[in-house]
Amino acid sequence: xxxxxxxxxxxxxxxxxxxxxxxxxxxxxxxxxxxxxxxxxxxxxxxxxxxxxxxxxxxxxxxxxxxxxxxxxxxxxxxxxxxxxxxxxxxxxxxxxxxxxxxxxxxxxxxxxxxxxxxxxxxxxxxxxxxxxxxxxxxxxxxxxxxxxxxxxxxxxxxxxxxxxxxxxxxxxxxxxxxxxxx
Length: 183
What we know:
The protein has about 180 residues and is of the alpha+beta class. It has one domain (about 5-135). It is built from seven helices and four strands; from the N terminus they run ααββααβαβαα. It has helices at about 5-10, 15-20, 35-40, 45-55, 70-80, 100-110, 110-165, and strands at about 25, 30-35, 65, 95-100. A hairpin with a 2-residue loop joins β1 and β2. α3 crosses α4 and α6 (about 100-110) runs antiparallel to α7. It is rod-shaped, with a radius of gyration of 33 Å.
């Protein structure tokens, strides 16, 4: 592919990274994208995307793609506004694709846009992973600083107590004044 062709396709991908990031959800402890969001990004219908996936189910094991439960579906409907079945919307739970499932979609859809969008989406997944790792490092460093601060606080308290004792004048035993008669 020539440079002009690549830039031409890139111009057709005006999807900001923020939009893709907002469409990545955490379900079952994994970062996933829902089939309707992917279909919109690839500019295909959700039905066509799901048909292509069903024709190639062997390429999508459970760790690449899974169908949402009724509870997960209801939660996503509330969060992202997937249309209601009572108003002619979806009649089944959507599919969720992990990062590896998104990668596999480019081989199933076989379009130039799908290939380029996949590169874009995978870069977003990688960026999120790096941000998460950075946040974990920062959290670890903060805990270490808190531990050190607590330790230093205890040491300072001990030093303060010793200095306070040293600053107090020594207590002298008062000698009785006067004559004491022998008993």
